[in-house]
Input
Amino acid sequence: MEAPEDPRRRRVGLLYDERMCRHATPDGESHPENPERIRAIWLKLESEGIPQRCVVLRAKEAEDKYIALVHTQSHIKLIRNISSKEFDSQRLRIASKFNSIYFNKGSSEAAYLAAGSVVEVSEKVAKGDLDSAIAIVRPPGHHAESDEAMGFCLFNNVAIAANFLLNERPELGIRKILIVDWDVHHGNGTQNMFYKDPRVLFFSIHRFDFGSFYPAGDGGSYCMVGEGAGAGYNINVPWEHGQCGDADYLAVWDHVLLPVAESYNPDIILISAGFDAAVRDPLGGCCITPYGYSLMLKKLMGFAQGKIVMTLEGGYNLNSIANSVLACAKVLLEEKPLVGSIEVQPFESTWRVIQEVRHELKTFWPALAVELPQNVLASNGRPCPVEVEGMNKPCPGSRDKSSPKDVIWKTVPHRLFLCKISHPDMGQRRCCFSSS
Ligand SMILES: [Zn+2]
Output
């Protein structure tokens, strides 16, 4: 006989759909963003009996009118048609015009399903039909700009869902959305879509490496705080190098994200949950463990009455992403207390970045204006790594540990592109500027 349902048991939505595996490289060439990613996550969750404890949902295609809330008509038209027969001979050429994009016959459907799925679960969580949800979707979304596919992303799934809740479902009472983007890359597309909008607080923590880490440029700098009514509602935490792990992320949670979330008091939290900052990811070069992700998520559950929607973004080591999503699913199900420990301290650079971010944002968020206790800063901080991993080729400048002078940083809002390159004429540790 089945036990009666425990009324305290949390209703966690879990969305997976094999149709999103049909988006793949046209020639079978290996690629980090491949269908095995979501399959591996699903198999892991199944092997642990997670789907039985969740509300399992199938993907739904997004409607064009909702996608049009953040994307241009020409971009929607391209993604809608790119998999049709008439594009057979042009698909490769069109993909090559974009930055890090491929298309095949399954791309259109997968893109519509990914976006529609995030809309669907976000609506259910906003309504209270679900307490929280995980959308295991691909292609990912946070690099997609309003008029451009980019960085393995076709539609900006999370941005579409956020706009849907704010503009299409006002009766659900979602007026303030916190988007936490913990993918190792900066969420440039999402940042740009809400840059002037105070209804969305966009928080991205990412490798920046002084502007040399993908997507490169100045967009991921902490100087990018939002504009107009949105000033103060865009928060970037830019790592100076790889190898950041649990201790670094949790220090940022405690000293930046959580104080701000407390003041902002969001109605729902959408997580752009890439897992490419996970330990052993081939592109990220960072070290978050499944335990680290579970703590990061647990700390967010104290806000918005625990209304959290996690959406998969990047993450390219199959074991790492599967174990990380599993750890997060267990947190949302709230079945057992978390077990684990964090051995190391944050890097010295982590404290520097935290102080810089707090300084930049303190006029908008008084909670950040308080000086950090000197004992926190003095007693913590291990030396920054000399060698950093990440990407297949080392990024130019990624071995340069010196931080730019303050005056250089301040030029970022004026759209001067800062890069650190090694060039025979310049020697190793030099900075150069070029306007972008
Ligand atoms: Zn990423």
Remarks:
- The first strand starts at residue 12 and ends at 15.
